[in-house]
Amino acid sequence: MGRLSGKIAIITGAARGMGESHARTFVREGARVVLTDLRGEAGRALQQELGDSAVFIEHDATDLVQWAKVVEQAEATFGPVDVLVNNAGILGAMAKTADLTEQDYLAVCAVNQHSVFYGMRAVLPSMLRAGHGSIVNISSIAGLAANYGFPSLAYVASKFAVRGMTKATAVEYGPHNIRVNSVHPGFIQTPMMVEATNEEGGDALSLIPLGRIADPQEVSNLVLFLASDESSYITGSEHVVDAGMLAQ
User: Fold this and answer.
1) Banded model confidence at residue 205, pLDDT cuts 50, 70, 90
2) Is 189 in contact with 213 (CB distance < 8 Å)?
3) From CA 145, how far away is CA 136, in angstroms rounded?
4) 198 or 70: which leads in pLDDT
5) Is 155 noted as a catalytic residue in this protein?
6) Residue 41 and residue 62: Cα distance in Å, rounded?
């Protein structure tokens, strides 16, 4: 316990799924957390449950102006931001490239890719003032390989982009003691994964060497490590949580 004592974090997409798990883990480990999500009712309920260590902001992560307000409120409520977890994401339309509309492509990139840039851009001045920071960008195994069928070109492209942006920012801000890493989950038991596999109708378990779908906490354990000082010499790296899927 207390692995994040004294740290102040922002977590996007925090109202459900992996984001909710990250938020619960961070508060349990001593952090004070700003939760953001478009799901206002669920976000406020989670804030109430987590108590004084959490504050919820209804926030569109694709809006740069709203990002400035999130960081401003985080600093006013708790202080300079130590940790950012860019967790918000969508799967988008399950269409092949020739059938993918421009609108659907841009909608996925706005959430999965552009919001990561906006979040890093907004929080870096706060981390520079603090003299340190850890940014954890949630990508996907689809940001490392595109051979699992259901993600569209838009999803794969956006998740590959997160990996590249992570590395570029890590190199730029390493001299300022700000670390940036990406996390690449496989199949995790979240509402988004359930919606995707149900729509496709495939057998996800047949793709997983360990033979099971992960609990969100198994991703949160890694995010916690990367957010904490335990990972002080790790930056610019991709970290896979996929039960061996990419080993095949």
Assistant:
1) confident
2) yes
3) 20
4) 70
5) yes
6) 20
